[in-house]
What does this fold into?
Amino acid sequence: MSRQGRGASVLRLAMPRGSGPAKAVAAGALSAVCAVALLAASGYLITRAAEHPPILYLTLVIVGVRAFALGRATLRYVDRLAGHDASFRQLAVVRTEMYRRLASVAPAGLGSTGRGDLMTRLVTDTDRLQDLPIRVVGPLVSAGVVAVLSVVAVAFVSVPAALVLLLALTVAALLGSVVTLSIAKRSDRETAADRGRVADLVLDTVRTLDVFAAYGTLDERLGHIARLDTAVTRAVRRRGAVESLVGALVGLVGGAAVVGILAVGAPAVVSGALDGPLWALAVFVPLALFEVIGGVPLAVLTFRRVRAAAERVEQVVPTEVPEGIVPEPDQDADPADLAVPGPVTVALRDLTVRWPGAAEPAVDGVSLDLLPGEVVVLEGPSGAGKSTLVDALVRFVDHRGSYTLDGVEAKDMHPDAVRARIGLIEQDPFVFDQSVRQNLLFARESATDDDLLAVLDRVGLGEWVVRRGGLDASVGERGGLVSGGQAHRLALARALLHAFPVLVLDEPTADIDPDLGDAVLRDLVTTARAAGRTVVIVSHVPVAPDLVDRTLRMRDGRLLDP
It folds into this structure.
């Protein structure tokens, strides 16, 4: 995709629809016209009044001054009210669409995007999109309308003065935009990326604070964060300096326009060819006009920031799902497909998986059968393709070859129907910051307290939950009040409540003490086997032989043992 095309779909989505934005733009443009007309009419009124004409000759201008003053304030209020209302409403649409797209690519399509960076893109960068209608489109339209009307109005008074004004407007717009783009050498896309990296580092540091403290590297880590944050701060300050400089340059050009109009009109006024009060009207026009024109370079700078934000958002939530990622269907799965009657047979034939953008497949030509009720261990070193094979089983990533469930191709099934049959207990099970009860009801809302206590007993947490005060006991943020083994047991309890025919345990003992890990794994396998589940244990360390029926090994994406 070209640089110009990146982020285009997000930018289009950020523009509000309906009459609201049109009303805001029209009100903004008319407010700017009233501001210029107010100052011009005031200059004419003061100059004409100095000639002491009958009051009747000034009545119309006096009424006009009052009307322009009221119109400027009222229309500006309408502009802000309608514009912000339309922008905020559209922002809700943008967020909904972003999360819909995110659901289509997560988790496999997020690539190497860190959690902090992802949060920055979906919060800070998405919020910045609201500037497009308010601070880009509105000011540019208002500036264009008022500039054209001002030049035409001045031309009725003096054509040379109108040409001077037109030249000044062109110089101000070009000079302001060129200076803005040339001085802001560091792009906002890079600044936004640095801001995302800061968020990533802060989040990672908070989560692993004990590790950095234990190894004495906390000060070094905090120093790295501070240096990166200082770079972001300098970029923001530089942007503010650019905005101030541009404002000053536009003001100078506006002053030059006033001097130019004075120069070209003075001889005509002295000779009597040009009415003095009308000439004063033409002189006062640039004074107000260039306040409006000053928003053009700032709108250009803002558009750079908005476009950079749109590009970053579209990188993680693209319009089209990348090749290799399983897209989420538009329609929900048929409830009948989600109800699994009993054991399921899984068959893989020449299964190949390639990550988006990867040159080589992560899983290459894997064939195996998983029979109901058996326990299979999948071993291999890190990078062998074990986790990728798991992602293919739960349809997070697409595949080539054949993958069937009871003879039905997985590609012909709704992804939710596949996931109703294949349950994944990931290496780092997610535990919600809720009570034990809510963490379990997530799997089956209709479960009673007796059902929950029974499944906790089956995974060896019955006495533990009683000691904690029952099902209402909190587990803390991200399971901070439970151990790694207890988190895995809670995850297994959820899986048993959901009644998955096939359970995949991805590195179930990776974060647990070896002795405790063996006990936890034994409990997990025994409980699942007693419930008639097929169990696949993905591990890079050996598993006790008496727990398993078969042990398979992977290396370089290939299955070594059929």
About this structure: The chain is about 60% helix and 10% strand. The longest strand covers residues 346-353.
